[in-house]
């Protein structure tokens, strides 16, 4: 996979709702657009006061689209005097048709499992629909039954409604749930149900069974959907989900408190979040079901990581690498440490720390490789004994 940045020109800018806008991005180098798996995201270089920062946006169009990629971005307005979101307001307010943007190749493991023939449940809240719309397009030729359930506030903020509806057919059923519809929404019949997606709604509209489910949206929405699906008998290994915010790792405290509590001792998540009955390994399939191998598990198996001791020099802690932690970051957290992190995907460099001794290998290539003597611990594993400056 190409890791570097390429320059893309904004070929079109389309307002999708009061707060959401799409950007159609065409490469300027004459080479084809990237190969994208439906659900993956692009990384954009965004100018800020210090230089540039990186922001990630899911590809929202048909991943097979040959001429452009499309991202669909919600404007994050600052509330109570806080500044507007840097990346989203730059795109909305400053970027126009013809402007050029540096973009890195598609990444992420939250993508459609095209080897499966099971029916598909796509569950989104707010702007979280973007990767699922891309999946929806790819599924059109699959012959699989598809339920596209989308929850949002009302018709004013509902993006890509017509595009999703255009995919409706005998096998594809879109359903929209508005929490607070306006009179105009009612008059126009823009939604199928009012309130929240709950168990009764799912039982009424979706013949829940042996599904592949994909969830994306605000954290409370994803938690609620995950729990509902489990209650309705969907296997964890068949539920994939992605966070648009900080890629915090959470565990299923309610379901298996004894089993998961020790490894979550170092979680940075708020206690209320930690108490949720769902797993949140970002970009990954929920991995607590031995019946099926997950995407993340497969990736782990394909890399060799010999046992070795990992020493955390600053804190004086150490831990044995036995392969049960996915990364050096996870190993450190399991050992009770709190290293900085953000994306957990090799993009932001927040987890960068000194590699005092030993060697590591990356199971996800860093977007910007660290200098010699440094390591991104969120996407690295030790090759034998290592000493980290943590
Ligand atoms: C894998 C992935 C895919 C994604 N896909 C999409 C997508 O398809 N579409 C999409 O819209 N987003 C997507 N996101 C989210 C996106 O990457 C950004 O996080 C989002 O646009 C917000 O970034 P920003 O720079 O605009 O806001 P930031 O500058 O990061 O600010 C975030 C929020 O904090 C507030 N804030 C800023 N400073 C302060 C302060 N001092 N005090 C209090 N509040 C403050 C801002 O007002 C804003 O609401 C995705 C994220 C991930 C991880
Ligand atoms: S947490 Fe972002 S690169 Fe490691």
Gist of the model:
With 390 residues, the protein is α/β, with parallel strands linked by helices.
Give the topology, please:
Blueprint: E1 5-15, E2 20-27, E3 41-48, E4 51-58, E5 69-74, H1 86-94, E6 100-107, E7 120-125, H2 130-139, E8 146-152, H3 161-165, E9 172-178, H4 183-188, E10 193-194, H5 199-205, E11 212-216, H6 219-231, E12 239-242, H7 257-260, H8 271-274, H9 295-301, E13 308-312, E14 317-321, H10 328-334, E15 352-362, E16 374-376, E17 380-388
The protein binds flavin-adenine dinucleotide and FE2/S2 (inorganic) cluster (FES).
FE2/S2 (inorganic) cluster (FES) binds near residues 348 and 349.
Could you characterize the architecture of this molecule?
The chain has about 400 residues and is α/β, with parallel strands linked by helices. The protein is built from ten helices and 17 strands. Helix content is about 20%, strand content about 30%. Strands 4-3-6-1-2-5 form a six-stranded antiparallel sheet, covered by helices on one side. A six-stranded parallel sheet has the order 10-9-8-7-11-12, sandwiched between helices. The protein is globular. It has three domains: about 5-105, Beta Barrel (Elongation Factor Tu (Ef-tu), domain 3); about 120-295, Rossmann fold, CATH 3.40.50; about 305-390, Beta-grasp domain (Ubiquitin-like (UB roll)), CATH 3.10.20. Mean pLDDT is about 85; it is low at about 250-305. Flavin-adenine dinucleotide binds near residues 86 and 108.
């Amino acid at each position: 996979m190409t890791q570097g940045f390429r320059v893309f020109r904004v070929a079109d800018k389309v307002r999708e709702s009061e707060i959401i806008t799409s950007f159609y991005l065409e490469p300027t180098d004459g080479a084809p657009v990237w190969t994208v798996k439906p659900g993956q995201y692009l990384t954009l270089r965004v100018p800020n006061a210090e230089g540039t920062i990186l922001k990630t946006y899911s590809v929202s169009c048909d991943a097979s689209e040959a001429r452009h990629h499309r991202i669909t971005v919600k404007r994050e307005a600052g509330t109570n005097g806080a500044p507007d979101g840097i990346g989203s307001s730059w795109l909305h307010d400053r970027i126009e048709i013809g402007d050029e943007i540096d973009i890195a190749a598609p990444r992420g493991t939250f993508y459609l499992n095209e080897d499966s023939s099971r029916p598909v449940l796509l569950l989104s809240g707010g702007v979280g629909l973007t990767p699922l719309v891309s999946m929806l397009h790819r599924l059109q030729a699959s012959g699989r039954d598809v339920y596209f359930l989308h929850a949002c506030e009302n018709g004013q903020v509902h993006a890509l409604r017509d595009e999703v509806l255009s995919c409706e057919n005998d096998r594809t059923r879109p359903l929209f749930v508005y929490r607070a519809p306006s009179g105009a929404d009612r008059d126009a019949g823009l939604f199928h149900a009012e309130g929240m997606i709950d168990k009764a709604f799912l039982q009424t509209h979706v013949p829940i069974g042996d599904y592949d489910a994909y969830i994306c949206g605000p954290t409370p929405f994803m938690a609620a959907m995950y729990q509902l699906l489990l209650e309705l008998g969907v296997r964890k290994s068949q539920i994939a989900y992605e966070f648009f915010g900080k890629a915090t790792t959470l565990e299923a405290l309610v379901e298996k408190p004894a089993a998961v509590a020790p490894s979550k001792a170092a979680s940075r998540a708020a206690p209320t979040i930690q108490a949720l009955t769902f797993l949140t390994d970002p970009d990954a399939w929920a991995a607590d079901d031995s019946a099926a191998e997950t995407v993340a598990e497969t990736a782990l198996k394909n890399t060799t990581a010999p046992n070795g001791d990992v020493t955390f020099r600053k804190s004086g802690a150490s831990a044995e690498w036995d392969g049960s932690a996915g990364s050096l970051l996870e190993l450190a957290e399991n050992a009770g440490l709190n290293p900085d992190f953000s994306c957990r995907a090799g993009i932001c460099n927040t987890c960068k720390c000194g590699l005092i001794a030993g060697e590591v290998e990356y199971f996800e290539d860093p977007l910007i490789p660290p200098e010699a003597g440094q390591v991104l611990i969120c996407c690295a594993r030790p090759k034998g004994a290592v000493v980290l400056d943590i």
